[in-house]
Design brief:
Elements: E1 4-10, H1 15-30, E2 35-41, E3 54-57, E4 69-71, H2 74-77, H3 81-92
């Protein structure tokens, strides 16, 4: 399986995206899935859209992208976390 490129974005590309980035990296490693994680600001996402396979974000995407977008606020709240992890894994396994 080819390495998946995962964008992890929040408003500033610093705080919440760091928490989510670490969690997605751990999830991928636990499931032996090769990923390249790019942590960025939401406004930077369009510059990566030609190479990304998935966007995991803690904010509103605001537009459509040519790859799936998964809301990751549950990594911060804990509410619905297992469901979001499963969604991410499903996309990474494609």
């Amino acid at each position: 399986m080819a390495k998946k490129v995962v964008l992890v974005a929040c408003g500033t590309g610093i705080a919440t995206s760091t928490v989510v980035s670490d969690a997605v990296d751990k999830l991928a490693k636990e499931n032996k899935i090769a990923v390249e994680i790019i942590q960025c600001k939401m406004m930077e996402v369009p510059s990566y859209q030609d190479r990304a396979d998935l966007l995991v974000t803690t904010t509103v995407a605001g537009k459509d992208y040519p790859f799936p977008v998964i809301n990751a606020r549950s990594f911060l709240t804990g509410i619905g976390l297992d469901k979001v992890k499963n969604e991410i894994l499903e996309e990474l396994k494609k």
